[in-house]
């Protein structure tokens, strides 16, 4: 690893990164991916730091991935559960975090249902903040691991055609992916029902396609998003069956192509809804690669931000 530094002190969203930051994160992730594939999977680089994971939303993959990344770096970890916290008694988010920081915590990883929560914290508490997903806003480490996984399969993403399919409206993964893929020079298309397409979609510099078969024939890779029922306060399509018939992806469609595309999914997978089990378990899907790369990317992000605390 080299002594380059990130331009940021917090990871709040992809839109605050520059290309040099992304290259450095990917370069560092290459090293850590080698580490986690060794027989001894830990490095003692952050054994003097304490990291608090504050998850105000349910999470399996992201929470486990961050925890494992932190353990692989040998840091101390505090896991915070909002369900058993004083927030239930009316304590503010800032007071809760400041009380945690008073215990000499160095880095806060936060997932929160409100867009802008990570930014709000960064402006009101004295700590390094890593956004693990804020409402429908951004999920920067997911976009980083998605793009890193794509680069492994496709090489340089300049000029590559990537389609993001499904519930764009409620997806923080989609927004972060759009920002990052465009930064890396990819051509991005969105595909899904009009009711699940944000009104500002085209202002993001992407194109729209409502027909899945046309989008799949166009692309080099497809990122299949989950329908986020938990964020919906009304019905956006007549039925799951109709959604699947129009926007569910399976091997039969892929077999009609004269090329092989890469298929991603940020998880959790609704098998038989946005993607069939047969496709999810096929060699064209890189879902488990994304999971492994997620640990390496999060190790890289934590290490690079922590190095700015240790060596200003």
What does this structure look like?
The chain has 312 residues and is an alpha/beta fold. The protein folds into 2 domains: 14-137 and 294-310, Aspartate/ornithine carbamoyltransferase (Rossmann fold); 140-290, Aspartate/ornithine carbamoyltransferase (Rossmann fold). Helices cover 39% and strands 14% of the residues. The protein is built from 11 helices and 9 strands. It has helices at 19-36, 61-72, 93-101, 117-124, 140-154, 172-183, 212-218, 240-247, 251-254, 277-280, 287-310; strands spanning 50-55, 76-81, 107-112, 128-134, 161-165, 187-191, 207-209, 221-224, 262-264. A 5-stranded parallel beta sheet has the order 7-6-5-8-9. Strands 2-1-3-4 form a 4-stranded parallel beta sheet, with helices on both faces. α2 (61-72) packs across α11 (287-310). The longest helix has 24 residues, at 287-310. It is globular. The two termini are 17 Å apart.
The fraction of residues in strands falls at 5-15%
Tell me about the largest β-sheet: 5 strands, parallel
Q: In CATH terms, what is the architecture of the largest domain? A: 3-Layer(aba) Sandwich
Counting H and I runs of at least 4 residues, what is the number of helices? 11
List the helices and strands in order: HEHEHEHEHEHEEHEHHEHH
**Tertiary shape:** globular
Strand order of the largest sheet: 7-6-5-8-9
Number of domains: 2
How many strands appear in the DSSP assignment?
A: 9
Q: According to CATH, what is the class of the largest domain?
A: Alpha Beta
Q: For this structure, what is the CATH homologous superfamily of the largest domain?
A: Aspartate/ornithine carbamoyltransferase
Structural class: alpha/beta
The helicity comes to 25-40%
What is the average per-residue confidence, as pLDDT, rounded to a whole number? 91
CATH third-tier fold name of the largest domain: Rossmann fold
- Sequence stretches where pLDDT stays below 50 over 5 or more residues: none
């Amino acid at each position: 690893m080299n002594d380059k530094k990130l331009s940021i002190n917090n990871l709040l969203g992809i839109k605050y990164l520059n290309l040099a930051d992304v290259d450095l994160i990917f370069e560092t992730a290459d090293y850590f991916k080698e580490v986690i594939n060794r027989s001894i999977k830990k490095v003692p680089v952050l054994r003097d730091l304490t990291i608090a994971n504050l998850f105000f939303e349910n999470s399996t993959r992201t929470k486990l991935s961050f925890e494992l990344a932190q353990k692989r770096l040998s840091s101390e970890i505090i896991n915070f559960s909002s369900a058993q916290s004083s927030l239930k008694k009316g304590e503010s988010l800032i007071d809760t975090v400041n009380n945690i920081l008073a215990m000499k915590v160095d880095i806060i990883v936060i997932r929160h249902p409100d867009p802008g929560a990570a930014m709000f914290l960064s402006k009101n508490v004295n700590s390094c903040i890593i956004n693990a997903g804020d409402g429908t806003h951004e999920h920067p480490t997911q976009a980083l691991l998605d793009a890193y996984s794509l680069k492994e399969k496709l090489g340089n993403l300049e000029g590559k055609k990537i389609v993001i399919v499904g519930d764009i409206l409620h997806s923080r993964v989609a927004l972060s992916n759009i920002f990052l893929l465009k930064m890396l020079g990819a051509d991005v298309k969105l595909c899904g029902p009009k009711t699940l397409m944000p009104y500002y979609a085209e202002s993001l510099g992407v194109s729209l396609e409502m027909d899945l078969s046309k989008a799949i024939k166009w692309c080099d890779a497809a990122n299949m998003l989950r329908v986020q029922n938990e964020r919906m306060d009304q019905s956006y399509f007549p039925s799951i069956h109709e959604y699947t018939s129009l926007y569910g992806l399976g091997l039969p469609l892929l077999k009609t192509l004269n090329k092989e595309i890469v298929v991603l999914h940020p998880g959790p997978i609704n098998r038989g809804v946005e993607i069939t089990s047969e496709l999810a378990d096929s060699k064209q899907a890189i879902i488990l690669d994304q999971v492994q790369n997620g640990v390496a990317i999060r190790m890289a992000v934590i290490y690079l931000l922590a190095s700015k605390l240790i060596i200003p």
